[in-house]
Amino acid sequence: MKRRDFIKTSMLGLSGLGLSGLGLSACGGGGMMGSIDLQPSLNTGVFTRPFFTPPEALSSISGITGNKVFDLSMQTGKKQFTGQGTTATMGINGQFLAPTLRMTKGETVDLNVFNALGQETTLHWHGMRVPSNMDGGPHQTISPNSIWKASYPVIQRASTNWYHPHAHGSTGSQVYAGLAGMLIVDDAESLALDLPKTYGTDDFPVIVQDRDMQADGTFRYSLSHMERMQGKKGNTILVNGVLDSVLDVQAKEVRLRLLNGSNSRIYNFALSGSTPFKLIATEQGLLAAPVPLTSITMSPGERAEIVVDLTALQGSSLSLLDLNTGMQLMQLKVNQAATAVTTTPSVLSTTLAPLTAAQSVKTRPFILSMGQGKVYINNKQMAMTRIDEAFTLNAIEILDIQNTSNMDHNFHIHGAYFQILSRNGAAPKAYETGLKDTVYLPANAKVQVIIQFTDHTAAATAPYMYHCHILEHEDAGMMGQLTVA
Ligand SMILES: [Cu+2]
Predict the structure, then answer these.
(1) What strands lie across the sheet with 303-309, from one edge to the other?
(2) In this structure, are residues 244 and 41 in contact, taking their beta carbons and an 8 Å threshold?
(3) Cα–ligand 1 centroid distance for 230 (angstroms)
């Protein structure tokens, strides 16, 4: 069967999802909406490669401090994605992507980061609430052939975070080359719950990234003017760096830690057959209760933990889809009997204390705009030497975030989490009521969030960042700097 025919056939299974108006045939199943380069996708809908679970990073305990120590090497590499051409890549302790860092609330971690890239970089712990000089933002540069030593106490709730470079102007190219990994925080509350939590058995990282692949399976980062404006989008979507992968799983509840690690693509994830799942956590940890869903939209940098109950599906398989493109991203093959089962509880967290608008002492506007080929926040472009916003430690504030452009953006802030108060004037849907650090703003959207910097001050010499996480926008200056005093 030709690939195009296969995709048309495989799309038939989606007709019940109301996708008929998606215009998929026009793009050959390649998911090229919003993309410049119309070459066809290398995703085939046939799952021939084994799913790759990034290994958990090795660590040691310092005999002097008792800290957990990770040694990380940011390095160049090469990789074949289709068995044909070889792509020049970057990875951490490997050729592409990075090992999963695992930390537990209450411990202190030391991270020795060696830069073997041959170019300046940084390493940012996205979602971690750490001192600003340990944040790995644009000011904590790591010169080639030097070591940056980060150290911080893990103070936050169990959550799925990630780490990636954040050097001003080169974040897009370095993440695209492969510098990204997951960072999972555990705590007593989450470990006590009857959730799937055996890494690589019923608890899996799912890092979704698109790449603009040539027919021979190679890719490289290059930007046209249009791509600078729209963000770099690719014709081919990888899961944990693998194309068309299949995951053998047990007939039980399975937890997928979804990360949109793409430079700019927005996904609407679903499972084939409209299979329901439970959303249990967003960026900053567990929701109060699971939210039943059949799809979830995620912009770059956002995370979502979902539980899929495969108990009754032994012998069958289902695929992870992106409804925005109609692409099948990977397959779950339920071909093993359960060795131990879990039952996701109806209450996940009793420690969430939502902030309310009445507690706010200030409303601070953030206008995301575009014009004359440039991207702005509050009509300014990022300047390393300018502080844009001064926050007060422990003050509760509303951030009034507005996308006045006709293009997708999102908003990510370092050093604190937030909760959504309203989206386009309406109360947030249940799936957006958790603690977050990144929020999607489609064209002309308006989102109000409430925030409180409770953990660390940030001096002007090491400010925290806020920015659009579409990496081409961030690199083009859609970013600002804040202090906390
Ligand atoms: Cu943007």
Answers:
(1) 236-239, 203-211, 253-260, 303-309, 277-282, 285-293
(2) no
(3) 8
Q: Give CA–CA dist 352/289, Å, rounded.
A: 11
Sign of torsion over alpha carbons 21, 24, 26, 27:
positive
Question: For residue 170, how far is its CA from the centre of ligand 1 (angstroms)?
Answer: 15
Ligand 1 midpoint to CA 408 (Å):
6
SS3 of residue 255 by DSSP: strand
Cα radius of gyration rounded to whole Å, the chain? 21
The 10s digit of each residue's pLDDT in 42-77 is: 999 999 999 999 999 999 999 999 999 999 999 999
DSSP string, 147-169: EEEEEEE--SPSEEEEEE---TT
> How many folded domains does the chain comprise?
1
* CA separation, residue 258 to residues 29, 97, 146, 200, 255 (Å): 22, 15, 32, 14, 9
Average pLDDT, the chain: 92
Q: How far is the CA of 50 from the centre of ligand 1 (A)?
A: 34
Residue 139 counted as domain residue: no
Segment (H or E) for 90: strand 86-92
CA of 376 to the centre of ligand 1 (A): 9
303 bridge partner residues: 259
Question: In the prediction, which pLDDT does 86 show?
Answer: 97
* CA of residue 369 to ligand 1 center, whole Å: 8
Ligand 1 center–CA 469 separation, angstroms: 6
CA distance 37 to 484: 43
Question: Which residues, including other chains, have CB under 8 Å from residue 298's CB and lie 6 or more apart?
Answer: 258, 260, 266, 267, 268, 269, 304, 440
Q: Which two tokens stand for residue 119?
A: 């170019």
| Gap from CA of 470 to ligand 1 centroid (Å) | 5
By percentage, how much of the chain surpasses pLDDT 70? 92
Distance 398 CA to ligand 1 centre (A): 21
Q: Which residues surround ligand 1, an ion (CB under 5 A)?
A: 409, 468, 470, 473
Q: Is 429 a member of any domain?
A: yes
In a domain, 391, yes or no: yes
Query: Ligand 1 centroid to 474 CA: how many Å?
Result: 7
Residue 61 in tokens = 């305990």
What's the CATH number where 381 sits? 2.60.40.420
Quote the domain boundaries for residue 410. Answer: 357-484
Burial class (CB within 10 angstroms; exposed 0-12, middle 13-18, buried 19+) of 457: middle
CA of 252 to the centre of ligand 1 (A): 39
